[in-house]
Amino acid sequence: MNTVAIFGVGLIGGSFALALREAGFSGRIIGVSSPETIRKALELGVIDEGMPAQEAAEAADLIYLAQPILRIVEMLPKLDPWVRPDALVTDAGSTKSTIVERAGAIVRCQFLGGHPMAGRERRGVEAAEAKLFQGRPYVLTPRSGAELESPQVREFIGWIEKIGAFTIILSPAEHDQIVAYTSHLPQLASTGLAALLEGRSAPKSGVFGPALVDSTRLALSSFDIWGDILATNREPIRSALKSYIAQLEEFSQVLDDRKIEEHFRRAAKFASELRERS
Predict the structure, then answer these.
(1) pLDDT at 121 over 70
(2) 30, 123, 139, 185: which has the highest count of C-beta atoms within 10 A?
């Protein structure tokens, strides 16, 4: 792998470029983004040069799509006439089924779905950092196990390990079902709490502590990102929400009952184990 083209040089795409460099990648890194983002990325030393999409795709051994989900979906069929037969196209989208299905439009080279489980509250190339992926899971969603055996994919997995991440292999549907509970539900729970309290007088009294601040942190997330996630993972998210609503309904029924103590014990056990694994 000598040339990497990153489509979308923001937090994830920029961090991937910086992580590759820190891990010893000595080839060329091309950026495909808005002129302003390319200017900033060059100033920060994130990429070596910026190019239009077609030129970058024609030059690249690895095409890394780190754009919003629906932009990736739109880009995939455009890439096919441009890519080299021995190239690998991968993505960093937060949902996988729609993207992997759309990737069937690419027939001239291999596609491998991916989702690095890493991020920050800040966005943009200015927030990119080389250590973003260290110790974090990097989910790969091949359509079949055989896809993992190609030389291009084996080399890509090698670089994932070099940047400090570890791979988890799932089908696209398995991925989307899991993240509906582990990523999308926490976001909607935080957003729902903040939306509920926004028009109420209680928080405006100033009588609140760190718990409210912590619980509404994810509500700062931009709908620019989450709109695409909700649009491409509706049914798994709807199922997760129904389960959460049922849990809250049960709480409302057992507030004056010792049964809620058992919920607290189970929840504390899970929270403790989660922090040990993270």
Answers:
(1) no
(2) 30
